[in-house]
Amino acid sequence: MCVLGRVRMVLLLVLLELGVLCAVTPIASHAIEVRWLGVAGLSISDGETTLLIDPAFTKPSIKHWIFNSEFRSDPERVKSGLLRAEVRGAQAIFASHCHFDHAVDVARVSEFTGAVIYGGASLRTIAQADPSLQVKFSEIKDRQGLRIGKFTLTPYRRDHPPIFHLSAFKFLPGEVPDDFHFRFFEYHEGEVWGFRIEHPEASLLVDQSSHFFDENAGFAGKIDAYFVGVANKVSLNDLVENNIIRIRPPLVVPLHFDFFVLQSDFLERMKMPGMQLDVIQKTLRKAAEDIEFRVPERNRVIEIRKPGVGSSKS
User: Fold this and answer.
1) Side by side, which strands form the sheet with 251-255?
2) 3-state DSSP: the chain helix, strand, coil percent, rounded to 5?
3) Which residues contact 185 (CB under 8 A, 6 or more apart)?
4) Of 95, 198, 243, 296, which has the highest C-beta tally within 10 A?
5) What is the per-residue pLDDT across 71-111, written as a single tens digit (0 to 9) for each?
6) Cα(first)–Cα(last) distance of the chain, in Å?
7) All residues at 6 or more sequence positions from 211 whose CB lies less than 8 Å from its CB, including other chains
8) pLDDT score recorded for residue 25
9) Long-range contacts of the stretch 262-268 (C-beta < 8 A, 24+)
């Protein structure tokens, strides 16, 4: 065999070897990492892009409720909360609704992380209430998907359930006023959203209400994890049977650990009236053993992958 022929043979063997290696070497799969930030807050990241939902670190005290005094974002609490959650930058901030114990910190979080705030008119009013903060804001629309990094997030409008279900009483419904100053009687819900989040590695549903309304049932679809609010339940049966089991995700993570009048770190540790976390877990275990119900620990990573790609356990 001539020299040229030998060179060709060597090249062919090298290419075949590379081809074999390419065929058998698995493509690395990176889980979506989710951290609970407290109350209803979430950080959702694929290592390249970070989405923040309801990132609230500043707590109203009883004096704010009693005296209707201004309630402002505390920059030190925001900075400390983000650092503890290892959030040093983010691309997007969303709020499930505009009760200001969920939305008070959005502008400060945007300033610290560089993230764009996405929402409707009420959230824009809150985000721009402090003119000293430079924030980036982008409007979202019902059922119109947004592409952020590898994430596709679709917001859907929903109703906020009554605070007292038996009386159907809703406290200060409607939009946030233009002259908003973070006072008790400006505690309007504004736009209320749920979010379906798609990524090549996993699909998530984030809905801060315990009741899933029929008109939004199509947004549940097939998901890998369901982050659901458990406060203000219509009933235990409604949450478990009509919501969680109806959607039947492999993993359910409860959220929305707050108690209107008392917003404190003690209550964030879920020692609150009406949460019934143990009861929910036992009821769900009896009704659907294939659904994992995992109570989050603040700032601890929950890994989410599609079934068969690895464990969803942290």
Assistant:
1) 146-148, 151-157, 193-199, 202-207, 225-229, 251-255, 292-293
2) 30, 20, 50
3) 68, 172
4) 95
5) 889 999 999 999 999 999 999 999 999 987 789 999 999 99
6) 59
7) 161, 233, 234, 238, 239, 242, 243
8) 39
9) 262/62, 263/39, 263/59, 263/60, 263/61, 263/101, 264/59, 265/38, 265/59, 268/38, 268/39, 268/298
Angle between helix axes 75-84 and 106-113 (nearest 10 degrees) is 60
In the Cβ-directed half-sphere of 16, how many Cα atoms lie within 13 Å?
6
Task: Say which amino acid occupies 191.
Answer: E
For residue 289, the one-letter residue type is: E
Q: What is the pLDDT of residue 251?
A: 96
Dist. CA 66–CA 123, nearest whole Å: 24
Residue 78 CA to residue 183 CA, distance in Å, equals 20
Ordered alpha helix ranges (H), 140-273:
236-239, 245-247, 265-268
Which residues does the chain have with pLDDT short of 70?
Answer: 1-29, 164-168, 258-274, 308-314
Return the structure tokens found at 47. 């290592």
SS3 160: coil
What does the pLDDT read at residue 273?
A: 59
Homologous superfamily, domain 29-304: Ribonuclease Z/Hydroxyacylglutathione hydrolase-like (3.60.15.10)
The residues that bridge with 198 in the sheet, in sequence order, are: 152, 203
Residues 6+ apart with CB under 8 A from 120: 139, 140, 190, 191
What's the rounded Cα separation, in Å, for the pair 87 and 313?
A: 21
Contact, 150 vs 49, CB < 8 A? yes
